[in-house]
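Task: encode each sequence below as structure tokens.

Item 1
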Amino acid sequence: MVTKKQKKIGDLKVEIVNMKHMMNGGAEALAENKKMLAELKKDCAQRASEQDEKKAIRADELKALEETIKVLNDDDALDLFRKTIKPTSLLQFNTAHEQAREKAKQILSDLRALVGSHPELNFIALALSGKNVDFTKVFKKIDGMVALLGKEGKDDASKKDYCNKEFNDAADKAKDLKSKISELSASIKEKQASIEKIAEEIKSINEGVRSLDESMAQATENRKAESAAYLELVQQDSAAVELLGVAKNRLNQFYNPKLFKATTTPSPYDPYALVQVSLHQKQTDAVKVGAPPATAGAYKKSAAASNGVLSMIATMISDLEKEMAVAKADEKNSQAEYESTVADAKEKRAVDLKDAQSKAAAKADLEGDSSEDEQTKSMTVKAQQAATKFTENLHKECDWLLKNFDLRQSAREEEVEGLKRAKAVLAGAD
């Protein structure tokens, strides 16, 4: 169980480190995106400003040209030019230099129409607008533009590789997280079922212990009652045996003096009570029958009668002693059986309580593991949500580039080719 917990702790630490790396990567990507967005906003604002400025300049230029043409086309101006300027001194627009400049401007114009407005293209076109333009500076601008387009191409290719890699990694991550959440959910469900089963087993054991305690209490009460009944029986039978012994000894004193046992121990029973009862009975009988009978002669002891009474007393004593012996044996057996039953019950109670404690500990461990699984699942779900958010941001960052990568690459190649052709045209004019 400890090894399992350590393994889970290790897995959680690894997961936390991975999440931190993913968060750091997401933060860096977010910072780069924000930086790129800021640069785009700045570039767009600059382009918009340059476009507005360009429109204003063109409007002013057109207005100036219109006014200039109007001034130059005036009749008085034409008369003045005819008188002052000879035809051979007019500017020659068909020179090779001028033709190269115009052709290069046309190439740039076609490129701008093809790939859209670009600040560097605009600057090159603006430089070619002057009649006394220095082609060396234009060449530098064209070379810089070609180098810039090459860098943009490499950046796009690098960004494409980055996006594809991140999408693949994100897909693998999402798959792993989904699988882990599914495994944790199954583990939690299994542990909860085990917890409920153990709880029922503990409840059953506790109910069994309570029932066993009640049975032990009832058995103890029964044993007390049986023991009290036994003691009462022994006390009564012992008293009866003692009384019968006194009676037997008294009869022996009269009928069998040799068997008489003299004793100085006072008896709780009056040895003359029987004699008094006998005399009282005789007196009563005499009253009933009238005058006493005539004396028949001297009284003689009846050995047969005495032997019958003594035998009966001996039988009664023997029966009482047998009854006490049987009762004693039954009491001993009952007490031994009770003690054995109590010992077995105590042993079972101890085993059941130990089993309940063991199950309670196992239940606590399962609850702890289930709680850890719940926490791990919660963290994994959050990681899944973060991964989903990262993928959404990745789509925002990469979808447009991936969709238009080939188109941008083709346009960039055409732009580079056009710039090289423009440079070749200008170089041929030199």
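Item 2
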Amino acid sequence: LNRNVLSAMADPTTNSKDVEMKETEEQKKEEADEQQQSKKDKDPITFLDVRELMWQVERSVSDKEPRFMFRAVRSLHVLRKRINNNVLRAIISAYYPQSSAKVRDALLQYLDEPMETEYQFRPRSKTATSVVLPELDILLHLMVVQYLLDKGPDLLEKARECSDALMQKLETHNRRTMDVLGAKCYFYHSRAHELLGRLADIRSFLHFRLRTATLCHDENGQAMILNLLLRNYLHYNLYDQAGKLVSKSSFPESAGNSEMAKYFYYLGRIKAIHLDYTEAYQHLVQAIRKAPQHSAVGFKQISNKFAIVVQLLLGEIPDRATFREPILRKPLVPYFQLTQAVRNGDLGLFSEVLENYGKQFQLEHTYTLIIRLRHNVIKTAVRMISLSYSRISLVNVAEKLRLDSVEDVEYIVAKAIKDGVIEASIDHEMGSMQSKENSDIYFTKEPQEAFHQRILFSLDLYTQSVKAMRYPPKAYKKDLETAEKRREREQQDMELAKEMAEEEDEDFS
């Protein structure tokens, strides 16, 4: 003992190190226990939130108010990150009665082993303990599909099987209260097949459901399925079939902004491939405007990329402020370099951008449109040469354009003169291009066309703003008087009329 005491007194640092090690181990254990406890505490809260969501669905069905169903679907998107296997098992096991044991077991087979803790679930409606509400059955099935899709690629096949079973359930019901939930189910059904690379397998099914939704005036389902079909066609580069679908179908005007934004985006891509750049740019601008302000970052990025390329194909230069936005600064770096190449008419820089970012353009499906920009780069270069030189040989023009053939340069210059890009003439004997004097632009129709485009844009913006206006439900009844107030007013009018009659009688007497 004396030796241990003497050794400890001789080396006090060893004791301090041992104490520090013990403290760090205890802190790690406490942190791990706190994390486990926080996870356990979050599950009951999530369970209560899901229960409140189901009550909103019940209220929407009982009161026949679709706004509660819309609210429930929005809440489902927020709860999606918090829902886990334990919460799903608790909800499914507690909600389904014994008479629906087959349906309950069919959903539970997609989940992991049963949980340890059980929660109490008390549905609000009296009939919920004996009869399964179809809307809630679809909602719980949809939550299972979302959970399987979020778990990763290992459970994608199981998610597809679950979504197929969900589609069979939807086909057995024809209830208008299920339209909003049905639209979400179609989306995740298509998403499961897209992640597996089997989008072509559900194309005929989507066409069948689109026809059914149109006949039943299901505008939510019609808008969703139409966007899914367009996405299906564009995934396989079937632009002609997509154009025919758009021409033979009508998109519901009462659809939400998110579906409207997707539809305008797909429509802009189709029009751009079909060389209708003016309408394509208008549709893409509408898609960007109707996109959510604080979310959907990926959608805004890809929409702006297509809008920039289409604007360059129109011969216009995008605004520099577009490239300075925080969410667009890094993704638009290749397109900013592309814009510089088109603006300066630099074929070398254009070829360099294609070489460096060609694979990225192909993944973003803008490569086909960007290849068409080569003619715009050449036209810009020819215009700059025409403004810089009053007379220049075609050989020097070929050197500046970095082209090998003088005959190609002569054809390019002749095409630019014919299209009105430059005002010049070609001297075939001397092999040169002679530019004409620049005329005042205000003697041409360009200012009139520019003002006309601005007026059309403003009118279109006003029309879209009016269509996008929303009013609170039954707000028009605020100004209408109730039956009691009307009786009181009529009684007061009658009393006032009697008093006036009595006064008149007194005057005549």
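Check on item 2: Residues 12-63 form the longest helix (52 residues). Strands lie at 391-393, 424-427, 432-435.
End of task.
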